[in-house]
Amino acid sequence: MRYSKTHKEETRRKLLDSSRALVKKGGFGSTGVDALMSAIGMTAGAFYSHFPSKQALLREVVREEMEHSIALLHPAADASGQQARKTVRMYLDPAHARHPEAGCVLPAMGAELARVDPQVRATIESGLKHMHAAWREVLGDDDAAWSVMAQFVGALVLARTVKSEVARKRILEANRRHIERLLDGVEPELP
Amino acid sequence: MRYSKTHKEETRRKLLDSSRALVKKGGFGSTGVDALMSAIGMTAGAFYSHFPSKQALLREVVREEMEHSIALLHPAADASGQQARKTVRMYLDPAHARHPEAGCVLPAMGAELARVDPQVRATIESGLKHMHAAWREVLGDDDAAWSVMAQFVGALVLARTVKSEVARKRILEANRRHIERLLDGVEPELP
DNA sequence: GTCTATATCTAGATAGAC
DNA sequence: GTCTATCTAGATATAGAC
After folding, report:
1. CATH of A7-183, one of 1.10.287.1700, 2.40.260.10, 3.40.50.300, 1.10.357.10
2. Distance, in angstroms, between B76 CA and closest chain A CA?
3. How far is B114 from chain A (nearest CA, A)?
4. Which of A151, A160, A167 sits opposite B147 (nearest CB)?
5. B41 with B80: CB under 8 angstroms?
6. Tens of pLDDT, residues B91-120
7. How far does the CA of A57 sit from the C1' of D18, in Å?
8. This prediction's pTM
9. What is the distance of C-alpha B67 from the center of its chain?
């Protein structure tokens, strides 16, 4: 054979990794198959050896992105809440706002995700419930957990929308401090 | 003249009102000029008598939407905070999640707004600062005001992303209760 | 498996008739 | 001011050569 056994698998992997970044940066609808393929040094025709359609790629992108976001938003529950604080600082960092391609899929694709097919939205819902359970553990409060997740996503959307760097920083810092205050109020569990 | 003096103005008004709803529902990029025009019973060619480009329409849509959203998110500051509670309940209502075309532009266009030209983003930033000042007044806390605004936007993005109606309701209700608790903690001002 | 070439479609924008 | 017709560019997807 002209290509090694693992060649297809490797190409698919490169395509997915590259595409995940591109669609988070530029949006799914406005990023063409040609752009996705030339980003890994190939031409559009080869795309269809890996996915039957652009939509099929999106499904896989969202699936992998949700796994990534769960890791990103998932605080390891420790008594002191230090892990949770680290997660908050990382998520609400201005660098995250400046680099959607490397960050969480939820604020990056937000409205577009609301229009994908129900199968994908079920995947997202399941991922969100995992994240919520983890924050519920840390905060000891069901409502507070959903509230923190909404703040994460909303703060990033707002921060990316404003023009000035100073406003971007203020929005992120305000939300970070507000969540940290919430964590301060959590009673440490007895050992 | 074949058309009355106010005809152009009226058509432009209809086009803007209709387009604001359509782009919030379907996204700006994926809603074509043809769809925008046929929604008001006209053909694509006539579009360019009113706007030099689709981008120019977007600028005006965002400008008007921000005014609308300010009104939507702007709580009248009264001592009891009843107006603020009403705003919270309205914004985080499942009906708002189900009808982006009639709701706030921020969760509906989120990521797309992050990619519009700086002039428009300055308009958005200015609008957000107005909203923030109003919530700062109600809550008496700078950070809490940004936090509530982020929760509004984030909760709606998340609620629209999940598949099941029950998850949608839980996310919105959790955020509503959490914000109401924040309002409960506000010391009423002395008369 | 990937490339080139291409079929097909849709989109933004323009020209000219009315 | 609006319509029809059309230009041009870009998109998704397919066919056949290598």
Report:
1. 1.10.357.10
2. 22
3. 4
4. A151
5. no
6. 999 999 999 999 999 999 999 999 999 999
7. 27
8. 0.97
9. 8
